[in-house]
Design a protein that fits this description.
globular, 8 helices, six-stranded mixed beta sheet, four-stranded antiparallel beta sheet, about 230 residues
Length: about 230
């Protein structure tokens, strides 16, 4: 699904914020992306979403190198990716229903199918009564659920989420995690950046750990062993 080979990223002439990033994500995998604030999680997600090209190194997605692709070719690949941004990026003049329906309309799905699918998903995330509301009339947590629903409605091949449960109580957060897991079982590759240790422990997926711009991947059994040996 995704391969990074010795990827580095810097902004302008400053130092690298990501250095020698090297990993492969298999189709249908599920990873948590963790690390302290400023470790580079959002920058790495931005590279995976193709919002920015790396300063150096090679990136392959969906079987092709992205390094030499033009903007139109990158847009074709982005249509396979669902993203939950920290700042939500909802369209303020569209209702909840129309924000969530946007990926399906871009894909040319029949309107009856769109309405049925969106209404069902909004009920599931607890926003059925707010389907006609504009984003600015919703709370931060409600806007976050709209953004998540929009990201998953088209069943993307890859889902990237930046702190998707950050503004939600634990009950809603766990419910949305079950939605992500259901999507994963249907074949979507998922990467979730989070600081929520309760969610990481409960769902037990491998962790991609960023530390000062460098990455290593840790399997759940290794994390459990480390806790036991460390007396945690």
């Amino acid at each position: 699904m995704i391969t990074f080979e010795h990827v580095g990223l810097r902004y302008g002439i400053g130092p690298e914020v990501l250095s020698d990033i090297h990993f492969t994500l298999e189709p249908g995998s599920f990873h948590f992306l963790t690390g302290a604030s400023g470790a580079g999680k959002t920058s790495l997600l931005n590279l995976m979403f193709l919002g920015r090209k790396p300063t150096r190194g090679l990136v392959h997605m969906f079987g092709q190198s992205i390094n030499g692709l033009n903007r139109a070719q990158l847009c074709v690949i982005r249509q396979k990716i669902g993203v939950v941004f920290q700042e939500f990026r909802l369209l303020p003049n569209l209702s909840t229903l129309d924000n969530v329906a946007l990926p399906l309309r871009i894909a040319g799905r029949p309107e009856k199918e769109i309405r049925n699918n969106v209404n069902e998903l909004l009920e599931w995330v607890g926003l059925g009564e707010h389907k006609n509301a504009l984003p600015l009339t919703l709370s931060g947590g409600q806007q976050q659920r709209v953004a998540i629903a929009r990201a998953v409605i088209a069943r993307p091949k890859l889902l990237l989420a930046d702190e998707p449960t950050g503004n939600l109580d634990d009950n809603i957060g766990f419910r949305l995690m079950h939605l992500f897991e259901q999507l994963n079982r249907m074949g979507t590759t998922i990467v979730i950046a989070t600081h929520n240790q309760a969610i990481i422990d409960k769902f037990g997926h491998p962790r991609m750990i960023l530390d000062s711009g460098r990455l290593h991947v840790e399997e759940p059994e290794n994390w459990a062993r480390k806790n036991i040996e460390g007396g945690c």
